[in-house]
Model the fold of this input.
Amino acid sequence: MRWKAPKGMMDVLPPESERWREVVEKGVLLFRAYGYREIILPVLEYTEVFARGIGEGTDIVRKEMFSFLDKGGRSLTLRPEATAGVARAFVEHHLGKSGLPVKLYYWGPMFRHERPQAGRYRQFHQMGVELLGSPHPSADAEVILLCREFLIGLGLSAKLVLNSVGDDACRPAYLRDLRSFLEERTRELCADCRRRAEENTLRVLDCKDERCRDVLREAPGLEAYLCSGCRDHYRKVEELLKEAGVDFVREERLVRGLDYYTRTVFEFQDPELGAQNALAAGGRYDHLVEEMGGEPTPAVGFSIGLERVLKALPPVDGGERDGVYVVAIGDDARRKAFSVAFKIRALGVRCDLDHMDRSPKAQMREADRQGYRYCLILGEEELTGGYYSLRDLVEGTQERLGEDGWLERIGGLPARGNGG
Ligand code: HAM
Done:
């Protein structure tokens, strides 16, 4: 039997895995520069954390969770996202106790039992930040700017789409009117929307079905229902973004698939990605911490989908050469090569040697195939002469160097550089 990875789950192989690492490292540096610190969460939570946090009526909770009973009969779920877990941890560890806001970032795998398609997987990876404790529009604006800077830093230009979904003061009236509109037009809606109209009304606005879209063009708009608090909050977020020179469009129909949002919601979309065009998304969630049993704690955050970001980046070009391959000729040299490789690696420079009993020529070919910059050649001549031959595979040159000489040359190489 030959096994395959589970449906919708991928192996990330080199060199793609190295690009992942680069993207994650860039993200971490940027998040830290904005004052965020890492939180490492369990991959599993009790199912109620997501059911309550994300919302019972959402597609994620209704049909996309990988849930199972543990040996004690409690339902656990592989996390479909991280925000609910962050809120749970915030409450459990009293993270707000020593001052607000609390700024946390995370990255790792998420799991949703979706129908796999391009850009949509069952195991995917997110990097994200959560800023807990501030109700101010400046927190929303900062989070949006950070997300944008991350994407721009990778060379991606995505369209920022923004909206306000209101709050408990104004959304109920809107939902009531939207529901009665949908009831009147129920026959014209797709089966999903008919169900959503009851359980997850806002999501109807998001339907991609053309017939539903035609109906929805006549639906009441959310903007007109916003209370003065939400209106004012939204206006200030827009002002701050304009001040920072950020382009965005307001889309009244942007509602998002998770129930915890209040006020600001946003997405960074790349139209070239097709149907799954959101590279990153987020918004404000002022009641989630309370939902997890904590004090009222307004919060805002976003998550970036790593698979989609990687897909939007130009293809890998093989990368620059780096590191040193130790070519050993003869048994004595092979023994010596071991300690030499050890020294090079201690410098933080990528280094390898032959474990396949290859001829010297084949060792050189292997060094070339593996993208090494130098071959450090150790043969009988070199051993008796007390020198090393350093061959530069880029320049095609070779020189004799004493131990100090090659160590100095190699020490100048970037530690764990490209492809390493
Ligand atoms: P989300 O919109 O569900 O939001 O996911 C955020 C991003 O994760 C999406 O824009 C997309 O890039 C990626 N993503 C989601 N589902 C998949 C999938 N099945 N396959 C591949 N990529 C996917 C959240 O998860 C919220 N927790 C964001 C947030 C953080 N809101 C506030 N703080």
